[in-house]
Amino acid sequence: MNVVQSLNQNALLVNDAGKECIVVGKGIGFGKKKGDKVSEDLITKVYKMAPEKSEWTGYYENVDEQCIQMAEEIAEQAEKFLNKEFSGNFILSLASHIQYLEAKYQDQIDIPEPFHYELKYLFSNEHQAAEWSIKFLQDKYNLNLPMAEVSFFTLHFVNGLLETGQVNNVVELSNILNETIELLEGEMNRDLNRETIEFSRFVVHLRYFIIRNLTGKLKDSNIEEEAFKKIYDLSFEMFPFEKAILEKLKTMLYLEHDMKFGNSEDFYLLLHLVRIMKSGGGCNNEFSRVVQGRVD
To answer: How many whole angstroms separate alpha carbon 19 and alpha carbon 15?
Structure first.
C-alpha cells in the first residue's frame, strides 16, 4: 500500500494493489509523500473509491485539508445512523461542497422550495442525517449555514449511498417515486399524509424495490414466490380496491420504466396500501391488524 496523496494528517489517498482508496487513522498522513509505504497498523477506516469514477483523478489536490476532515467526521456518524458505507468519492465530493459553500451563497444558488419538501419525505433518513450534519458544522466549526443546505447534503447522502456501481441518478429515482405517489393520490382522490409512519414505510419499501430493479438485484426465489402467491391471491379477495390501485401502479412502472414485480413485492406493497388507506380513514379490518408489524 503506497501513498498517492496526503489529504491531511489523518487521511491518505493510497494505491492498494492497483486500486485507489482513502485510508483514515490518527497521524497516518503526517510527513507522508507520494510513493511512501503506509503503516497498515495505523488504519482505522478504509473508504473504497467507487468504480468507473476516473474523473476524480487529481481532484483531491484542490480540496482543503480541513474540509476533508469535516467530511470524514460527518461520514463516520452518518454511516452509523444510516447503517451504510460510503465511498472515498463521497468524502471528496462532500469536502469539495463544504469548501465552496461561501462562494455558492455569494452567487445566490438555491434549491426551489418544492424540492426541499419532496426530499424530506422521499429520503427521510438521509434528510435527518443532513439536518444533523448542518448542526454539527455550525456547532463545531462555527459555519453559518442556511437550512437550504439540508437539501444539498441530503442529495450528497443519497448519491453517496447509491454511487458504488449501482444507481448514479438520484433524479431518476426521485421522479419514479413522485410518479408513484401522484398515481396513488389520484386513485385515492386525496392527498396522502406524508407525516404518517405508514407513508414513510411505504416510501422506504418502494424506494428499495426501485433501486433493486434499476441495479438488477431483485431476489430470485421460486419457492418464496410460490408461497407468497397463495397469500397474495387470498389477500386480493379481501382488498379489491387496493388490488386495483396496485395493478395500475405495476402497469405504470412496467410500461414507463420496464420494472417488474414478483409475488413477494406484490404482497408487501399491497399491505402498505392497506395501511395507508387505514391511516387515512379508509379501511378498518382484522387482516390489517393481523399484519401490523410484519412489513419493514
So the answer is: 5
